[in-house]
Amino acid sequence: MALSKLDNLYRQVILDHSSHPHHFGKISGDSTANIEMNNPTCGDVIELELAVKDGKIEDIAFSGSGCSISSASASMMTDVVIGKPVEEAEHLAVVFAQMVQGNEISEEDSDALGDAAMLSGVAKFPARIKCSTLAWKALGKALTDETGQAKEEQLHNE
């Protein structure tokens, strides 16, 4: 596939997630974590709600407002982590942050990120990195240990 056609495909997937976000709204049952975060640089706001049961993310939803990259990333993130063990979701949040900062990730991690791997090109636009990582940071913060502090591997360098 020609590079321009591939870029166009990636743009279409991102626009689709932004226009028709998956898991947008509230979860149907009781939540175990609810967090609101914002990106003061551009005004993106996300409220992330999740239900963790037996060490797995049983349900997840987000609401808020933001740019297309922020909304698409949140939609992609919810698709990726629902049903996953907490440890795997934490790992993927770290991997995603590394990827959008321009660091190489393994093919296995890229596959595990699903559609979210298409956001690797954000690394070319430093101002958009915070937009793309907002939902993933909210996830990392929501998946805190019992002391209420984010684990070191959950923190993202910017």
UniProtKB/TrEMBL annotation:
NCBIfam families named in the record: SUF_scaf_2
Highest taxon, organism lineage: Bacteria
Protein name listed in UniProt: SUF system NifU family Fe-S cluster assembly protein
Pfam family, one: NifU_N
Coiled-coil residue windows: none
Positions of the NIF system FeS cluster assembly NifU N-terminal domain: 10-131
